[in-house]
Predict the structure of Acyl-CoA synthetase.
Amino acid sequence: MREYSAPAGKPVTDDENLADVVWANAERFSDVVSFRRQVEGTWLDVTAKDFADQVAAVAKGLIAAGVGHGDRVALMSKTRYEWTLVDFAIWAAGAITVPIYETSSPEQVYWILSDSAAKAVVVETSAHRKAVEEVSGRLSTLEHTWQIEGGSPAVDELTALGAEVSDEDLHTRRRGVTANETATIVYTSGTTGRPKGVELTHRNLLAEIRADIEAFPELMEQGNSLLCFLPLAHILARAIAITALTARVTLGHTPDVKNLVPDLGTFRPTFVVAVPRVFEKVYNTAKQKAHADGKGKIFDAAEATAVAYSEAQEKGGAGLGLRAKHLMFDKLVYGKLRAALGGRCIAAVSGGAPLGARLAHFFRGIGVPVFEGYGLTETSAAANVNTSAAFRVGTVGRPVAGTSVRIAEDGEVLLKGDVVFGRYYNNPEATAEALTDGWFHTGDLGELDEEGFLKITGRKKEIIVTAGGKNVAPSGLEDTIKAAPLVSQVMVVGDQRPFIAALVTIDEEYFPAWKAQHGKPEAATVSELADDADLRAEIQAAVDEANKQVSHAEAIKKFTVLANDFTEAGGEITPSLKLKRNVVNKNYASDIEALYRK
């Protein structure tokens, strides 16, 4: 099949915007617990009315500070209650939110603030403020910096600032925003290494919200709860958080994944949203603990039974013997695994990178199906997703309501619908390259089966996606490292891996001089000196320089020095010295594997 379209859902009208839901909830469901905030280890309720009052107060402060309709306000913070509060306040003030990852380097902060012409920025910590101040002298449009933590918290400061702004003025501003206006500009890594600003409208995100509610009716209903721990600068976490608020699902935030298990235990969510790396960690931790406690054989048998039980669901159901084994292991093993997710978790949603069939079968087999989806920033998060009504392990599901998928002649996945963005900010060339007659060229390769399930088979573009779902543009890192005289070629690796690493080759012409300078034997080969402390220190310095350009999640954590340079004869580089990544990946597969074993 070359194309599949999902039926349209509830349409978005021209006069709607994302801030509407805050007051709709407050007026009709004022006592519903919209959030539970973690304060000094205790979860405190925030009702729909409380939230609306706080959003209004912060929005009035933005208006009083001179933030106008359509102005850009950046937001740099870990996942926390104030992130969502400020996001909605920006929309209520008629402005546009520009998220910045809290791990971003000063140069990344500069690029986003300058390209978006942000008028104000809300940061979380003193370190974030310092990153802004380091580049503020080069920013002509930035007028305000507010800080969430510290002596004068942003929420309090803005609330006081807006005390004289009337409710009427606020709501006039809020209601003046239409569905086709830009709601947010989300910067995403491009092949050049310079992040592109994806403009998402209120219509884009409202269409995504309605599609998600339609896809997950059993999850997105009042009384359920969701613990949000992915970065809210990532469109997946943000779209699901907004959806939860719209569906009156109680939302909690936790910024530190190190505390995730205890937080899951106290918050006890109905479902979670995560990238595959989180599910891998849950599985690996449970397996390692079982083996360390001498219960490895029981766990392995339980794992095999869970996978078999899930696989049987696609073939008419499990037989009597398998059901009996599954029931036994449910008491011995599966119940404890579900308890690690808080004990009430009935499902999970995964995106950002492929999950893997065995892991998907394992979690479905223990009673926590993981609904794997697919999408990009340009599609407002999920364009395709598996659901309880339409679930096929190994695929990323069918398109969400109102979305069409097409497979181009070269196998590239194309997407169209209300969730698809309209343009990149200040970048008409990139927009023209990405969109053809409303069809978005994803850069990914895929296949559609006869029932509309999409399977992603590869990547047409070079962007690396780590197991944590972080998009990394390799060229900027590689070019910086190659500037070191000792280095000839570099290839950054890490697609579907837990971290970014690099393969490095040595410049054969410079190598003899380097050996003489450092007192190394003249006859020593690269292979013999690959682990030499002086050589590795020099390359590490080049890696450190490259890492200054990117966030911690994008930084190179390990590298290996190869015995031989990449050659045209070996098919590893083109005549113009461009890397043939697929060939290098194949030729040096064992070296790449070794990087992730050490």
Observations:
- The radius of gyration is 25 Å.
- The CA atoms of residues 9 and 49 lie 29 Å apart.
- Residues 18-177 form a domain with the Rossmann fold fold (CATH 3.40.50.12780).
- The first strand starts at residue 3 and ends at 5.
